[in-house]
Amino acid sequence: MGIFGRRTTETATTDAPGTAGPDLATLTGTYTIDPAHTTIGFVARHAMVTNVKGGFGEFSGTLKLDGSDPSNSSAEIDVTMDSIDTGNADRDGHLKSADFFRTEEFPQMTFRSTEAEALGDDYRITGDLTILGTTRPLSIDLEFNGAAKDPFGNERVGFEGTASILRSEWGLSWNAALETGGVLVSDKIKLVFDISAIKNA
Predict the structure, then answer these.
(1) CA dihedral defined by 92, 140, 3, 21, rounded to 10 degrees?
(2) pLDDT above 90 for 8
(3) Distance (Å, rounded) from C-alpha 181 to C-alpha 49?
(4) What is the pTM of this model?
(5) Which residues of 56-65 are buried (b: 16+ CB within 10 A; e: fewer)?
(6) Do residues 176 and 187 make contact, with C-beta atoms less than 8 angstroms apart?
(7) What pLDDT does residue 23 have?
(8) What average pLDDT does the segment 68-90 reach?
(9) For residue 19, what pLDDT is reported?
(10) Of 13-27, 31-45, 160-174, where does mean pLDDT reach its minimum?
């Protein structure tokens, strides 16, 4: 099984048929998140009828993995809030403004893990999420997608997962009432992670 319960794989060029995947000990180490192949995004309910999806174009992060004892693993991520992108320039400008993220005053969102645990075939990492200077705990449920060596010799690991937050708990309380009832933007926000990270030399 894989480092967090999933089976690991090598690329076809390095794995002959019938051979085992990489030794778990080789996966233990420090990995740098690859922004070009990673998505950190979110989904919000808009006008009570549809979902708006967005993400961040600039971020950095590090994963420290322990293949023999996942509880010793950790993660840290820094996100540049001015890089928010929902596919609409006016909406992005509003999100950067004083109504929402106040990006000039609070240029980064950060996550620092405090605990990691294996949950059967899945994994949960808990830590401190800081937005607008407010820090609150967040648990992210992750699936380990595997490990592989890419054509350039990089040793990669992949994860995907989600978490839900109430944005008002981080001071993101702006809203507008609808004539038909309800509000323009949901308080509940779904965070989406699809991470590829490269093992440091």
Answers:
(1) -40
(2) no
(3) 12
(4) 0.85
(5) beebebebbb
(6) no
(7) 52
(8) 95
(9) 35
(10) 13-27
- Mean pLDDT computed over 27-39: 96
Residue 33, both tokens: 């998140």
Per-residue pLDDT for 13 more than 50? Answer: no
Provide the percentage of residues in the chain whose pLDDT is more than 90.
Answer: 74
Can you give the three-state secondary structure of the chain, one letter per residue? CCCCCCCCCCCCCCCCCCCCCCCHHHHCEEEEECHHHCEEEEEEEECCCEEEEEEECCEEEEEEECCCCHHHCEEEEEEEHHHEECCCHHHHHHHHCCCCCCCCCCCEEEEEEEEEEEECCEEEEEEEEEECCEEEEEEEEEEEEEEEECCCCCEEEEEEEEEEEEHHHHCCCCCCECCCCCECEEEEEEEEEEEEEEECC
Strands 50-56 vs 74-80: parallel, antiparallel or unpaired = unpaired
Domains of the chain: 40-199 (2.40.128.110)
Token digits for 131? Answer: 């937005």
